[in-house]
UniProtKB/TrEMBL annotation:
Subcellular location as annotated: Cell membrane
GO biological-process terms attached to the record: sensory perception of taste
A Pfam family that the UniProt record links to this protein: 7tm_7
Protein name, entry field: Gustatory receptor
Coiled coil: none
Location (main, coarse): membrane
Keyword Iron: no
Topological category with respect to the lipid bilayer: Multi-pass membrane protein
Keywords for the protein's UniProt record, in alphabetical order: Cell membrane, Membrane, Transmembrane, Transmembrane helix
Transmembrane segments: 6-25, 77-98, 110-128
Length: 207
């Protein structure tokens, strides 16, 4: 392959990196907003009207949770194909690198296949890891902040708002889901790694 032959792959790399960057920006933004809200819960409880502020925070949290769920639905088709492309490319590159290395030894071709597999797994890791962090900051960490509130030190309306806030978190779990196809979290990475390991094991047994 000549150097100018690689020009046909640059737009593919730009697309893969661009979609990964878009997902990273969206998840990071939602995670930071959730962190900011959790950090300001203490200030809300110390205000003159904590019940009203908690109610406003609850409405804001529900809107943020719905935005996270709608993000997965809106981009479900695009990112489903994206994840499938990464999965297939990783499997083919891993299989090709292992078979060629075992048959002919390590060379630049096999090193290139290793780099492709590592690159695809890195993209998948970024997507899954950012979705996991955003869901954790909006879900378990936020819920833990509410559970640590000293209910005996607040009035009845504030206690009611805390219970309603916890109910809203339970009924609207902030899960990144591609329209029911798959939940985007760290388990997706382990599933892909298991598939690659199974593929390599099958090839070794054939040999």
């Amino acid at each position: 392959m000549l150097f100018w032959h690689t020009f046909g792959y640059y737009h593919i790399l730009a697309m893969l990196n661009g979609l990964c960057a878009l997902w990273f920006i969206n998840c990071t933004a939602k995670g930071r907003v959730a962190t900011w809200m959790a950090q300001n819960l203490h200030n809300a409880l110390e205000s003159t009207d904590p019940a009203s502020l908690l109610g406003a925070y609850r409405d804001l949290w529900v809107d943020l949770s719905h935005m996270m769920q709608q993000l997965g639905r809106a981009y479900s088709g695009m990112y489903s194909v994206y994840c499938l492309l990464i999965l297939l490319t990783t499997i083919v590159a891993s299989y090709g690198s292992v078979t060629e290395t075992m048959d002919q030894g390590l060379s630049f071709k096999e090193a290139g296949l290793f780099i492709v597999a590592f690159y695809c797994m890195t993209l998948l890791y970024i997507i899954c890891n950012e979705a996991h962090h955003a869901s954790r900051k909006m879900g378990p960490e936020f819920r833990e902040r509410l559970l640590n509130v000293n209910l005996s030190a607040v009035d009845q309306r504030t206690r009611q708002e805390v219970h309603m806030f916890l109910t809203a978190i339970d009924k609207n779990p902030p899960i990144m889901n591609l329209n029911g196809y798959v939940n985007v979290n760290r388990k997706l990475i382990s599933s892909v790694s298991s598939i690659n390991s199974l593929d390599s094991t099958i090839h070794e047994r054939k040999l």
